[in-house]
Amino acid sequence: MSAHAHAPARPPARRRLRLPRATLARTLALVLLGALVLLLASEGLSSYQNLQLADGCYYFAVLAGLTVLTGLSGQISLGHGALMAVGAYTVALLVGNEHWPLVAAIVAAVLVSSAVGVLVGAAGSRLRGPYLAGATLAFAIGLPALAEKYSSTFGGANGLTIDPPAVPSWLGASFPLERWEAWIAGIGALVVVFVMNNLVRSGIGRSFRAVRDDEIAASLCGLHVGRWQTLAFVISAACAGLAGGLLAVVLQLAAPGSFQLGLSLSLLTAIALGGLGSQIGAIWGAAVLVLLPGWSEDLAHSFSLSQKVSANLPLAIYGVVLIVAMLAWPTGIQGALRRIVAIARRSSARGG
Amino acid sequence: MRAPVHRARAIAIAGALALAVAVVVAACGSSGGESNAPGVTATSITFGTHQPLTGPAAPGYSEIAPASQAFFDYLNAKGGIYGRKIHLIIKNDEYNPTQTVSVVHELVLKDNVFGIFEGLGTPTHTKVVGFLNSSKVPDMFVASGCPCWDKGSEQPETFGWQPNYTIEGKILGQYIKQHFAGKKVGVFYQDDDFGNGGLAGIRDEVPASQIVSTQPYQPGGTNVAPQISAIKAAGAEVLVDFTVPIYTALGQLTSFTLGYKPQLVVSNVGIDPTTVGGLLKTFSKGKAGTELIEGAITDGYLPSSSDEANPWIALFKKIHAQYDASAPFDGNVEYGMAAAYTLAQGLQLAGKDLTREKLVDAINEKGKELSGPGLVPFRYSKTEHGGYAGVEMGQVRGGKIVLFGGAMTTEPTAGSPITPYTKPQPAPPSSGVSVP
Predict the structure, then answer these.
(1) Measured between CB atoms, which of B11, B92, B123 is closest to A157?
(2) Which of A81, A128, A52, A4 is nearest to A236 (CA)?
(3) For tag attachment on chain A, is the N or C end more exposed, with fewer CB atoms within 10 Å?
């Protein structure tokens, strides 16, 4: 999406697929298409793959928000893992202790994490580049420690557990729990798609880009730079809160171990790897987060190494893949795909 | 200018979605069909386990599951159980509850294991007990002494194996009451069901006036100076540790730095001298070792791993040399092999037509009568899923654990009596496994 502000003149392409031009109608069509894909996928998948799908959906929710913050508004946050923790603990406390209905608890998770986002974002809007990253990094390290400090409320390292979400009776008694969890997370992801797609094409999205590209020019145009940056942070915090809430539902657990610093770092690498600033890049990023650890583990076990080496190898492979990918495709998977599509189109235009 | 860009994006979106569906559909092909009893064929039985291969609990504990696999390899070489070879898929959960949830889902839903065996840790395994029981997956012999496994009526699939921490705490507490009467006691414990269970046992035996300070720690941090200083400041002359090995080592190094030399009493899960000595050496860059735990009072429910005259230790050492030689032979290796022996007994009892229900029923019905490397009997019945019923007192002497005074058994309920257990240990069977 970042390419939009200064879109290069591309050769006109033939019309192959038509989506409505009005943003709202377009987005609705996109969401319906996404819902159909998720529905069909969850029917065909095994229980374990449905869980992976659910993981992918909540990762997508946080990545979509983070990619708006970083790609559109130009701020780097290393604290989104902690914002997910806010959402997860909100859901765990409200569902586990107060017996709120799930939907209400997830909405509350979005609101609470937005409120935290206002605080962090307001402080962060006064900071630039590495200083902002530093401040959010401190947030990512500090917040999970609160769970251990106040262990009577937050359960310490043990965490808080909640019951699995009840499968509605109209789906039938044999409906697998894992598929229901994938649906819940999928609905959350589609809400994010809907909101974010409308947002980036609205005046708000344009203001974000204006602030990102030139703060002085933006403020000369009457945009309050700090306020817009705070708003971008709050929106991405809301997405992170939603993702955290969904994570708590899928894992039935909110524990500090889920939200270590590594999570915040891997979220940032995932949006970079997927393709910065693009919603589809967020889909790729989510796929990377869900699938790459398993693949690198399988790869590590395919060598017959001593247990001490093979236990640590998956992490090393994960790191190497990230480094190589960033060197080979600095624009991420989505950027590489775009390039391939563009090359294919150019050669087909030349040929016919 | 906008319209063509939109079209290009629409194409890109459609392409990405199509590719996502293709990936998903391709991935579908990999999940095979399930048989009636998952994880069992005519020639094999597959169990899965979650273990801390890296992370704060890895030192020592990471040796347990490979030792179990080594014992299975020994049995498999003898033909397995009813011709089936036992395999163990070991997954690393880093002692992180979140990872435990995801690897156990993977083991049960993707790898279709027959059951989970010796899943390690209290904060970790508590997060999957609900899932395993609702999926009716046998959850054999959790590698933790949390009293929370001992709920046969609520959690019919889950069985403890090592002594319940409250039972252990009571027997340690009785020793403190008898031998350190009137001395001030401080307790350093892990802030979860492990530490709290042990503390409950200590409180059951040691008079409340004698306990001057109880200090919890959260696994993951490395600074235990606040806790140890507080215990020292309270004037405790006896320090009781309900800790995993890394925190026993950190606590002792901190005590040493503070010039604090109490009589140490440590739960058997946190005192294996090879492990703790190694950690002390690493942390102090070679300046300290097992001398910092010399004289510590502890307990055991298996023969000491340094008791070479014991026929079980001799057998385990032989298996270790053949199948698991890369690990040091210590209490963790012994633990893994002994637990593997109990699982093999359960599979033998369950019979040739193995199903998940039959394994659970076999332990419920005959588990109490099982004997093997353990010094005490098991507390198994339809409602009791508690594991070993007691311990024998022990002490670290010359860097090795020496057991003394004879085995004792008790119940975890407050006020229940502690009684000596005198039935002799059987010798290991030459056939590999023997059952009542």
Answers:
(1) B123
(2) A81
(3) C
Residues 6 or more apart in contact with residue B33 via CB below 8 angstroms:
none
Q: Do B126 and A34 touch (CB under 8 A)?
A: no
Residues B151 and B103 in one domain: yes
Chain A positions touching B3 (Cβ under 8 A) are: 21
Residue A293's pLDDT is: 79
Q: Which of B7, B62, B130 sits opposite A307 (nearest CB)?
A: B62
The yes/no answer to whether this complex scores an ipTM above 0.90 is: no
The Cα-based distances of B112 to A121, B32, B43 in angstroms read 46, 10, 16
Question: Do residue B171 and residue B222 come from a single domain?
Answer: yes
Q: What is the pLDDT of residues B64-94, one digit of tens each?
A: 999 999 999 999 999 999 999 999 999 999 8
Q: What is the mean pLDDT of residues B382-397?
A: 94
Restricting to A residues 123-152, those with a Cβ less than 8 Å away from any Cβ of B are 148, 151
Q: Which of B8, B10, B97 minimises the CB distance to A257?
A: B97
CA angle A155, A161, A163 (to 5 degrees): 155
Whether A161 and B130 lie within 8 Å, measured CB to CB: yes
C-beta atoms of A255 and B98 within 8 A: yes
Helix then strand then coil, in percent of chain B rounded to 5, is 45, 20, 35
Rounded to two decimals, the pTM is: 0.82
Tell me which residue range forms the domain holding A146. 21-163+177-260
Residue A123 lies in a domain: yes
Residue whose pair of structure tokens reads 């817009």 in the numeric block: A228
Q: What residues in A contact B134, CB-CB < 8 Å?
A: 164
Q: Which residues, at least 6 apart from B208, have a Cβ–Cβ distance to it below 8 Å?
A: none
The residue out of B358, B373, B389 marking a domain boundary is B389
Q: How far apart are CA B243 and CA B110, in angstroms?
A: 34
């053949």: which residue's tokens? Answer: B322
CB-based contact B110 A253, cutoff 8 Å: no
Q: What's the mean per-residue pLDDT of chain B?
A: 90
CATH of residue B329's domain is 3.40.50.2300
For chain B, what is the domain count? 2
Domain total of chain A: 1
B364 and B290 part of one domain: no
CA distance A136 to A55: 24
Tell me, yes or no, if A258 comes closer than 8 A to chain B by beta carbon.
yes
pLDDT recorded at residue B2: 42
Strand ranges for A7-159 from DSSP E: none
Does residue A155 lie in a domain region? yes
Tokens of B74: 């020994």
Question: By the CB < 8 Å criterion, does A6 face chain B?
Answer: no
| A4 confidence band (pLDDT: 50, 70, 90) | very low
Q: What is the mean pLDDT of residues A36-59?
A: 92
Kindly report, residue by residue over B20-34, the tens digit of the pLDDT.
Answer: 554 444 444 343 333
Backbone angles phi, psi at B267, to 5 degrees: -60, 150
Mutation target for A interface from B1, B6, B9: give the one with most A CBs within 10 A.
B9
Clarify whether residues B83 and B58 are in a common domain. Answer: yes
Length of chain A: 352
